[in-house]
Amino acid sequence: MTEQKPGALDLLRGLGKGLATTARTLATPAHTRQYPHVEPDLPERSHGVIALLEENCTSCMLCARECPDWCIYIDSHKETLEPTTEGGRARQHNVLDRFDIDFSLCMYCGICIEVCPFDALFWAPDFAYAEGDIRNLLHDKPKLGTWMERVPESALPESAAPESAVPEAGAAGSTAPQAGAAVPEADE
Ligand code: SF4
Ligand code: SF4
């Protein structure tokens, strides 16, 4: 009998502790987020997806070359601009045909955004673009352009004022996904 007494006390103490924990938990508000019914309140400069400001892109290929996952695909061609003054020289410039990012490979390191010398890539906070088919995570330039609407104004350079920053969705001619995009020479 004398051996059972401490055991019974321990049991009561344990029961008391358990009830106290239950009572404390009941009084604590739950941190569960009811996503997708309730959108999370994210900081505006969250790193959710990469947006492309197409008019700033010169097809220099720097982002594609520096991407550790090789998941940026760029195609472009050269066009000649006629001289604007008499006796002037014709100039060549790159025209962007294709700019795709494969988000099934992207590891969101942000290197492409950091190295772009022309402020053409930005973080947008959108994150809800999961797909049932992994192949649908390859996004082209019209789609990347639509995410410019979500880039916070504070992240945009002066040259990309909000009204000029958003290219018309579907306005740019994207090319069909193709493997082994050619690497054009950067234009001056
Ligand atoms: S965030 Fe990193 S992995 Fe993703 S496209 Fe840019 S450089 Fe590549
Ligand atoms: S580094 Fe910038 S300007 Fe050059 S190809 Fe990439 S997005 Fe375009």
What can you tell me about this protein's structure?
The chain is of the alpha+beta class. The protein folds into two domains: 1-31; 49-165, Alpha-Beta Plaits, CATH 3.30.70. The chain contains five helices and five strands, in the order αβαββαββαα. The protein has a three-stranded antiparallel sheet with strand order 2-3-5. It is elongated, with a radius of gyration of 27 Å. The model is unreliable at 164-188 (pLDDT under 50).
List keywords for this structure.
188 residues, alpha+beta, two-stranded antiparallel sheet, elongated, binds iron/sulfur cluster
Q: Which consecutive residue ranges, at least 5 long each, have pLDDT under 50?
A: 164-188
Bound molecules: iron/sulfur cluster
The CATH architecture assignment of the largest domain turns out to be 2-Layer Sandwich
Count of helix runs: 5
**Gyration radius, rounded:** 27 Å
Structure classification: alpha+beta
Short description:
This protein has 188 residues and is an alpha+beta fold.
